[in-house]
Amino acid sequence: MTRNNRVTAYNDDGTMNGYTMDPRGGSGGGSISGYLLHRVKPHLPPWLGIAGAGLAGALGHERWANSAGAGVGLTLASVALTGTTWWVGRTTGKQRRLHSAITVAAGSAWLTAACLAGPTTGPIDDLYLMGGPGVALSWNVRMAMRRTDGAGEGAGSDKGLLEKVGLARAQIGAAKVEPNRVTAPIAGAAGEHTHDDVTKALAHIASALDLPTSAVRYTPDADSARRGELVIVPEDMLAETIEWEGPSDLGGSIADPLVIGRYDDGAPLMLWLPGDPSPEVKRNSTHLLIAGGTGSGKGDAALNLLTEILSRRDVLVWLSDPKAFQDFGPLRPGLDWGVEGGPDTEVMVEGVKAAIPARTRWLGAHSYRQWVPECAQVQDSSEHTCRPDGRPCGCPGMPFLVAWMEEAANTLRALGDDAFTGIAQEARSAGISLVVSLQRPSYDQMSTSTRASLPSVLALGCDPRDEGFSLPDSVLDAGAHPGAWGNRRPGYCYLVTPGVPEDRYPSPGRTRAFSHRAVSLMEVLASWAQRNGATADPITAGAASGVAGRLYTGRTAAGDDQAAAPDAVEEDEDGMEYGLLVDPEDADIDPEAELPEAEQGDDAPIFGQESGHKPSPAEARQLFARALEEFEEEGRMVVGPKDFTDWCDRNNLSRPWVSARLKEAAMEGRLEATNTTGRWRIVPALTAA
Q: Looking at residue 518, what is its pLDDT?
């Protein structure tokens, strides 16, 4: 190391030897001969050992010449020393262990012979003069090779590392070094190692390298049971929080990648929702599960994805949020349909189900096997026409549709664990992606069929016991451990999705953070989506309206004024407000009309008698039909007996009577059954007619 024009000399093991020399000719602490002596020092021990053995042989001969007892003792000592050297060398490399044992065995054998017969007797002195320098030089060569051959030293180090972690006979190939990423092929010993042995050793490798467990991953070779790639990321580039500063591709297509963060080596973290049937890509469309425990940053991860989706020109978003848009409030104007959970979410789920066959039928009629960006444009091509004569049909385009179920555990509790099963299994072919977000995707909340139909997952920190609910076993075996983060590292995640190389699955990433400074920018994005985003096509809007009636209005264009309520007050010229002077329900009563004749039950109630007028069966059915119309006008499109509790009290009717009428209405086509027992979906009046 150079500092102030002085050079510090190092030993071969990398430690300073305490000697410095001035490169201009002067010396600091020694001369040039002293510097050379320090350079020679590491090579002197083998020669000193040879000299010591010769001196010991001469002195031993003076004491034990022709002594039978000394011969037995020296022989036993020689064998014991050689065996001890072999046993001690078990933790080193095989070559070093063998070299050490041979050196000790040869030296102790010569010393025994020299002590008993004499160092100059027969060939003993010749063996010393020829063998001694040879042994010493062999150690000098070994040291020189270790110092100068960096590749060999690295291989030795790798070998020692693999021995420590239980993969002694495994082989590591040439490493590929990238910025903050080292990839090395590894092959287990034939017949001894499998992929499981390597994955079990990952934690020990991370410990040996003093790295986090998530920094070491293994990608198995699909064509071999013992070969794969070992990936090491020495520096955690995710420690720095990066705030969201806007979408990555404003005005682009939903078919382009959605960038939601970055990987630990700095590469962009991105995914695709539509498929790509081109021969170069062949990527399937996908549904996405967003899973993470409380405090893991799931809300920010969802905002990253939703802002990317809303920034594209050819996509609609239907979103259910039982948290009343606590996080998504600034983005709500950009949604095509947004509801706050409860019965409205039931209607949205039914609306998605109704849209699937309608959209699939449209795609088939226009010769599309799956949704592609051309579907969102006016169909002016003869290759994609629904006309039997083959001429361009000019049909309006059909945008991609994202059905987003936020805090889906709430919806699953209300509708049942298989509420999304049909959608997850059928929607991809209709150009629809389902996004399900919840904290714990366990099988007691979500059916196994639904979970199996969600190919993609964005897994954030969770309880270690929940890792298997979020990520496939193969990804966990390769080194992914979201349970190691919990809620201590918000935004850290793993992404498993089509279009991303499989060796990326166990690589951790981090989504961008949304602070209070992002609110105004999200509002601007929502306004842009109002003006420039896609509008619902007649097929999708018709399917939604046929199920939801007035509850589905589509996205309101920016600047549109809401229609005044029919009961709005009027303002006179003097600024005073005047409204109706009677209650709204009494507005149609003619004050000049005669009162109706009294009927049975209209008198004052007495003990044991019902109060008020009890309608006749015909009147009751008319009241029930009118109640369904009122529910429809209010947008309450999913009803059950409990929704008629107050109505029954007002009209002196019982809930069992209502249950029977609900079944009759279903048989007449005015209602349809839902996934939840005892709940019925109102068929809009025009559709029923």
A: 94
pLDDT for 433: 97
Helix residue spans in 518-608 (DSSP H):
518-532, 538-548
Same fold for the pair 152-232 and 613-689? no
Ordered by start, the domain boundaries in the chain are: 43-148, 152-232, 258-525, 613-689
pLDDT of residue 353: 93
Give the burial string for 284-318 (b: 16+ CB within 10 Å, else e): ebbbbbbbbbeebbbbbbbbbbbbbbbbbbbbbbb
Burial class (CB in 10 A: 0-12, 13-18, 19+), 377: middle
Looking at CATH, the fold of the domain delimited by 152-232 is given as Gyrase A; domain 2 (3.30.1360)
**Structure-block tokens of residue 87:** 């046993």
Take residue 261 and report the two structure tokens written for it.
Answer: 């963060």
| Confidence (pLDDT) at 263 | 92
CA dihedral 114, 118, 120, 122 (to 10 degrees): -90
Query: Environment class of residue 256 by beta-carbon count within 10 Å: exposed (0-12), middle (13-18) or buried (19+)?
Result: middle
Token reading at 365: 């009629």
Record: fold of 613-689: Arc Repressor Mutant, subunit A (1.10.10)
Structure tokens at 409: 């555990």
Beta bridge partners of 16: 10
Could you give the CA distance from residue 662 to residue 676 in angstroms, rounded to a whole number? 14
Contacts of 5 (CB under 8 A, 6+ apart): 22, 23, 24
How far is it, in rounded angstroms, from Cα 624 to Cα 626? 5
**Which one, of 257, 552, 256, 539, lies nearest residue 399 by Cα?**
539
CA proximity to 456, closest of 421, 408, 495, 509: 495
Long-range contacts, 132-137 (Cβ 8 Å, 24+): 132/50, 132/53, 132/54, 133/50, 135/46, 135/50, 135/103, 135/106, 135/107, 136/46, 136/47, 136/49, 136/50, 137/46
Q: Please list the ranges in the chain whose pLDDT falls under 50.
A: 1-29, 148-156, 561-586, 595, 598, 600-610, 687-689
Give the CATH architecture of domain 258-525: 3-Layer(aba) Sandwich (3.40)
d(CA 38, CA 33): 9
Q: Which two tokens stand for residue 69?
A: 């007892």
